[in-house]
Structure formats: C-alpha cells, structure tokens
From TrEMBL:
Entry keyword Transferase: yes
Protein name: Acetyltransferase (GNAT) family protein
Annotated Gene3D superfamilies: 3.40.630.30
A GO MF label: acyltransferase activity, transferring groups other than amino-acyl groups
C-alpha cells in the first residue's frame, strides 16, 4: 500500500516536532563538515515566526512530518542583489530552511517536497522557484541539479555567500 504524502501549512502544534527535525539537520550538516546552520540559525524562534507568517510547510507521510521548509512568496531581500543573474523577474516562490526527519532521510522525501512545491507554484500561476544553499551542502546541491534548477550566481545572506538557483515553472 502506498503511503499518503501531502504538503500542508505547518501549525503552531507542529513547532516542537519541526524544531527536532531542524536540530537533526543541523547535526547532519556539522557531521558532513558543512558550515551551514552552525551559528544558531535557524532556531525555534525562526520556526515560530515561519508558522505565524504562514511560511512554514510540512510534507507528511501518513500524517507524520517528514520534511519541513519555508515557502515565501516574492520576498527575499537578499535576492535583490545577485552576483550573476536570475532567469526571470516575475513572481516567485522562495524555498528556505529545508530539513528532513532522519527517519525519512535517503528516501527521496526532499525530492517529493520539491515536487509538491512545483505543483503549488503552477497552481498559483507563479513563474518560478528560487532557492539558495551553502557551497558545501552537497545533498541539497545534488537535489537542485537533479530537479533541473539552474545555477544563477551568488547571493549574500546573514551568514555569508550562498549559491543561488532558479527553476522556471510556467
């Protein structure tokens, strides 16, 4: 029997579970030798803010949270300055803070999360998806490459330069 996989907005009741998943991801990044997420960000306050603003989304498998991420429409001030060039200047979805529960790691759930984001983007007639990641986050770099995202250049976020990617959806 196939599991039921859904994307939904996260709710305040999800915050502790989401924070546990992010902490797992912070530790995985550290073990992989990545500098991403090693400076106190993201934190529980970030999760609570995402939920309050309606940005937080979870991919559930049979009702259990497998992946968390923030989906932000047309708003990432750091993306206004890029060393390089975006593919488009229309409406976009920004994807931030993607974290997978270690129970679901290696099962393609982040790819499914991006599939659902693409469906969401299409259904809302939004032109593209933009995302950034650290130069040493090999897992996310492979996912973005495999999903057809184009490298657009570098953007400066609070903790340094990040590789920026975009995928045209419509």
């Amino acid at each position: 029997m196939n599991p039921e996989i859904k994307l939904r907005k996260s709710e305040i009741e999800d915050r502790n579970r989401i924070w546990e998943i992010i902490q797992q991801s912070i530790e995985r990044r550290r073990q992989d030798g990545s500098t991403q997420w090693q400076n106190g960000y993201p934190n529980l306050g970030t999760v609570e803010s995402d939920i309050a603003k309606g940005f937080g989304h979870v991919l559930t498998v049979d009702g259990e949270i497998a992946v968390y991420g923030a989906l932000i429409l047309n708003d990432e001030p750091a993306y206004s300055t890029i060393e390089g060039a975006w593919l488009s200047d229309g409406e976009f979805v920004v994807v931030h803070r993607v974290a997978v529960d270690e129970k679901f790691a290696g099962q393609g759930m982040v790819k499914k999360f991006f599939d659902h984001i693409e469906e969401f983007t299409k259904s809302h007639d939004i032109q593209s998806i933009k995302v950034d990641t650290n130069h040493d986050n090999i897992a996310m770099l492979k996912i973005l490459e495999g999903r057809g995202y184009s490298y657009c250049g570098e953007v400066l976020l609070r903790d340094g330069m990040r590789k920026a990617f975009e995928k045209i959806i419509i």
